[in-house]
Amino acid sequence: MRRSTSRVLRGLALLSTLALGATACGSSDDSSDTKAVSAGDIQSALKKGGSITVWAWEPTLKSVAADFEKKYPKVKINLVSERSGDKHYTALSNAISAGKGVPDVAQVEYFALGQYSLTKGLTDLAPYGAEKLASKFTPGPWNAVSEGDKVYGLPMDSGPMALFYNKKVFDKYKIAVPTTWDEYLDAARKLHKADPKAYIANDLGDAGFTTSMLWQAGSRPYKVDGTKVAINFDDAGAKKFETVWQKLIDEKLLAPVSGWTDDWYKGLGDGTIATLATGAWMPANFETGVPNAKGDWRAAAMPAWTKGDKASAENGGSSLALPALGKNKELSYAFVEYANAGDGVATRVSEGAFPATVAELQDTAFKNKEFPYFGGQKANEIFAESAANVADDWSYLPFQPYANSIFNDTVGKAYVSSTKLADGLKAWQEASVKYGEEQGFTIEK
Amino acid sequence: MTTLQPPAAAEPRQAPPPARRDRRSWAGWGFIGPFVAVFALVFLAPIGYSIYLSLFRDQLIGGNHFVGLDNYTQALKDDAFWAAVGRVALFLVVQVPIMLGIALLVALALDSGRLYGKSFFRITIFLPYAVPAVVATLMWGFMYGTKYGLVGDINSAFGVSLPDLLSPGWVLASIGNIVTWEFVGYNMLIFYSALRVIPTSLYEAAEIDGAGQWRIISSIKLPAIRGAVVIATIFSIIGSFQLFNEPSILRPLALNSITTDYTPNFYTYSLSFNGQQHNYSATVAIIMGVITMVVAYAVQLRGMRKGA
After folding, report:
1. B204-227 b/e with 16+ CB inside 10 Å = b?
2. Which Gene3D superfamilies match (chain B) (predicted)?
């Protein structure tokens, strides 16, 4: 009995521990066709009809897909919108490496485009006529989707940053809305002193937010030239950000709450999180996520790093791209163009999306739209101005999704221990360099 | 037991005559065949495939190529991996004795027959094991919260400032607490059932010899359940080395305290799903499997030798 137990146990120990092996599939190289596709080809594809699968969580696409199907009755669009963020990219990467179940159209955020375009996972849209659309889009998003003469997606929305602030709280404590980050720091101190439960903002370390802040501060940590990559957080812009943010962390002026959590919505609603610097796509989320604070919030231009400087940055925003292994390319492209540069844009804007197209951004009706949530403020004026002031020379890493996934392992330390933000960024840089080297990139030091 | 005339169909337990051995062994294969097939498919094949994977490296730039044992040398020099191993080893030497100690204590108390409402205690102590790990971890996570959780409520109600149980210094202990809560009942049940099969005549004899309860415990009960203790220990060792659920579910609440390489299993998961490093992930999993096997085997050898 005892001996057989021991044998079973030995077996169990062996098996249960060895069965960890992750399975993977070899990636298959796919040659993307480069021959030009004429408008006629696309028209005939639309007439012929067919069905395409779209993986996108952007809520406004639902109406766009319905309109598109109405306009081209023979086309059927399967919109798969359950997954977003990391789960979406994991599923997409897995489908691409398995070579099966790849969607015809996928939503890809700007920061993640590089990873897919570099590994030839996406179709170059230039032959379909996408490069002629360049002037339709604002420079920031267009720069994000294009690389030389190649176009890897059409910008769907953009996220020029703005500072949303709880006016009720600012009025209550007679604090002026900060126009520079130094003033922001003062406001944070004043607010927290007046009400120890209130914080100027929440932050527990968020890669997307930090990179956008660095972008605005003029830091350009990533230099990407094909497979040659340089990563360096040691520049003047990063210094500016580190100095102010380190003080906010050290003086415990930031609410220890992560974005998109229940606590976060609660804090935005009850005035304990008084500002939020984020992309212009936020208003729709305010309305659905924080309905009880209607009328309390306002939008303002981002505080400047030096007084009078208008530089802004993008936070978030996505494109629609055509995975190389997708089918029905002409049809898929027709849908993407319709949604992001055609009639679909108006539909999406009316449902609260923030466009990446110049025409809509400069439209007077768009600019004059009053947001009841913001007490009737014409917030789009602020967003449009921010969009115009986005520096377009920023680039993300070709493996930004991975880098972001280890942000809290490295920079996150600065929020919960004595590690300094600058050291956290340095650790992030080293970890990113290590990964880049392992993945075969040439890292310039 | 004596059998005067063996029945025509040979009894399986009797030694077969040598001449029939061949045919018999084939029949044996027939019986274990289905098992072997499933075993090969769901165990040996994945392990083999993992080993195969671990000999390659699939890069974003440069594609897939054979690298021999490079992944292994890399893993053996990987600080993140060894830090994770160290973490679960620390967890193992602290949490497992505490958990098994409590479980043993409870089992002995239940077995002593001096407890009122024995079945009530038995079921309530076992109940946490029936709670899914996800639910248990979330529940504890919310209690640990210093802002809106129980800890936060205690802090504001009594004006004290309890340590943040989700901070880097505390979170391993907090995970240990969750795991202990979950598995004390399970281990208690193993010990308790082992205690129940001890013949009561031994206790009677001990009492006649004038042995007290402590003497009965140390001289009869503990030696008798040694096997069960070794089993529970080995299960706990494997469980500790495979720690994954609790840290990964707790992570959203302790984003900066629980890194993506917090435990070896979590590390393999992150390598695979965040970094698309399936090959290296397989390597780490294999090394970890070997480590677990060696430790579990060593403990088992030691435990059984004493018992023999």
Report:
1. eebeeeebeeeebbeebbeebbbb
2. MetI-like
* Closest alpha carbon within chain B to A85: B274
Q: Is B292 on the interface with A (CB under 8 A)?
A: yes
Return the CATH superfamily for domain A161-313+374-444.
Periplasmic binding protein-like II (3.40.190.10)
Q: Is the minimum CB–CB distance between B168 and chain A shorter than 8 Å?
A: yes
Contact B281 A22 (CB under 8 A): yes
With beta carbons under 8 A apart, name residues in chain B contacting A19: 43, 46-47
Please name the residue that has the structure tokens 């880097």: B168
- pLDDT (tens, 9 = 90+) of chain B, 308 residues, equals 444 554 444 444 555 555 555 555 678 888 889 999 999 999 999 999 999 999 999 888 888 899 999 999 999 999 999 999 999 999 999 999 999 999 999 999 999 888 888 889 999 999 999 999 999 999 999 899 887 788 988 988 898 888 889 999 999 999 999 999 999 999 999 999 999 999 999 999 999 999 888 999 999 999 999 999 999 999 999 999 999 999 999 998 888 999 999 999 999 999 998 888 999 999 999 999 999 999 999 998 988 775 44
List of chain B residues whose C-beta atoms are within 8 Å of the C-beta of residue A417? 168
Q: Is the dihedral of CA A48, A54, A59, A60 positive or negative?
A: negative
Q: Which chain A residues contact residue B242 at CB under 8 A? A: 16-17, 20
Give me the phi and psi of A75, to 5 degrees please: -95, 135
B63 lies within 8 A of chain A by CB: yes
**Interface probe, candidates A7, A20, A117, chain B, greatest B C-beta count within 10 A:** A20
* Residues of chain A positioned with their CB less than 8 A from the CB of B64: 26-27
In angstroms, the separation between the Cα of residue A201 and the nearest Cα of chain B is 15
Judged by a CB distance cut-off of 8 A, whether residue A236 touches chain B is no
Give the mutation candidate from B41, B51, B61, B293 for the A interface (greatest A CB count, under 10 A).
Answer: B61
B114 lies in the same domain as B47: no
Residue ranges of domains in chain A: 39-158+316-362, 161-313+374-444
| 3 state DSSP class of B23 | helix
CB-CB contact of A83 with A57 (8 Å):
yes
- In Å, how far is A39's CA from the nearest CA of chain B? 34
Size of interface A-B (CB pairs under 8 A): 155
Residue A120: which residues within 8 A CB-CB, separation 6 or more? A29, A30, A32, A324
Identify whether B223 is part of a domain: yes
Name the DSSP class of B10: P
Measuring CA to CA, how many Å separate A131 from each of A111, A152, A154? 20, 10, 10
Q: Which range of residues forms the domain containing residue B26? A: 21-66
User: If you classify domain A39-158+316-362 with CATH, what class do you get?
Assistant: alpha beta
Structure letter (DSSP) for residue A398: T
- B87 with B62, same domain: the answer is no
Neighbours of A362 (CB within 10 A): 12
Domain stop point among B9, B35, B66: B66
Residues in chain B: 308
